[in-house]
Amino acid sequence: MWGQRLLSFPIIRPEQILEKEFDVLMIVVSSSCSVKQIKDYALRLNIPKEKVIDVFLDVRFMDLFVDQRISFMKGYAEWINSRNIEGNVAECGVFRGDSAKFINRYFPNRKLYLCDTFEGFDYGDLQYEKGENNQSFNQSKFADQSFFAETGVDFVMSKMIYPEKVVIKKGYFPDSVLDVKDRFCFVNLDMDLYIPMLNGLRFFLDKMVYNGCILLHDYFSDVFTGVRQAVDMFEQERGINIIKTPIGDGCSMALIRN
Ligand SMILES: C[S@@+](CC[C@H](N)C(=O)[O-])C[C@H]1O[C@@H](n2cnc3c(N)ncnc32)[C@H](O)[C@@H]1O
Question: What is the CATH number of the domain that holds 107?
Fold first, then answer.
């Protein structure tokens, strides 16, 4: 597309940057592998290192990340913090820490539990999902167990602004958290599959404070249909109807503890 325009902006070759005057080169791609390639290439073009910024990692630019889910987390955190509502926070399904870093940022004074195998889906959970014969899921890239494997605790921790608040729970959820007795005001459940999402609800709902929120990613997904089924099953098991509100990203549902 070099030489063309996108949304009225000219698209130029990387080498043409050298003909321009600029303060910073902002890399705005969310794949960390691509960020590394672009950074390496910029350095080979002799662009000074301090001018090359990864927008998704550099705290100065975090607010540029306009994402409905992140905006919801920010707004909910501000409200919770302003009302002095108690409770710690957690994320189950961390992968490379791209949502966890925001939870850490917006809840600076609360312990943040991060739960993940850090090795991708559990084999048994995945087999169960595949047995449900959801063609969209089975034909997707997510049906491959290695899809979420490229991550690690050190990598995730390097993204945290308040690492001293983070408690890593590496391993199969919920086995990894059986010693956790805390109360929670915000939990992000993002494990994609029916079994871990159902276990997430079973583990956390009773631990939520009044007005606490469990944010469920993929509730409206056609690929991860197990998420909605997990909520239905949980409500059926308990004979309850949880207060739900879609957050407007077309994907996530917030459950509010009353
Ligand atoms: C969609 S990714 C999380 C994405 C992350 N929240 C984000 O927004 O960048 C799903 C993660 O759930 C984890 N996961 C799924 N089932 C799990 C289980 N039973 N125990 C621990 N981790 C699990 C996978 O390892 C994977 O990293």
Answer: 3.40.50.150
Residues 187, 133 share a domain: yes
Tell me how far the alpha carbon of residue 116 lies from the centroid of ligand 1, in angstroms: 6
Residue 169, CB half-sphere, CA atoms under 13 Å: how many?
19
Place of tokens 């080169």: 25
Does 120 sit in the ligand 1 pocket, CB within 6 Å? yes
Q: Which atom of ligand 1 is nearest to the CA of 69?
A: 8
Does 218 sit in the ligand 1 pocket, CB within 6 Å? no
Distance 78 CA to ligand 1 centre (A): 26
Tell me how far the alpha carbon of residue 210 is from its chain's centroid. 24
Residue 244: strand pairing partners: 255
Which atom of ligand 1 sits closest to the CA of residue 91? 6
Confirm whether pTM is higher than 0.70: yes
Do residues 9 and 102 share a domain?
no
> Running along the chain, 258 residues long, what does each successive block of 10 average in pLDDT?
85 91 87 81 92 76 70 95 96 96 96 97 95 90 89 95 97 98 98 98 98 96 95 98 93 96
113 lines ligand 1 (CB under 6 A): no
Task: Tell me the one-letter amino acid at 108.
Answer: P
How many CA atoms, within 13 angstroms, populate the side-chain half-sphere of residue 77? 21
Q: In angstroms, what is the span from residue 238 Cα to ligand 1's centroid?
A: 25
Q: Does residue 43 sit in the same domain as residue 76?
A: no
Judge if 78 and 54 occupy the same domain: no
Tell me how far the alpha carbon of residue 140 lies from the centroid of ligand 1, in angstroms: 16
Instruction: Provide the residue range defining the domain that includes 18.
Output: 5-61
Provide the domain count of the chain. 2
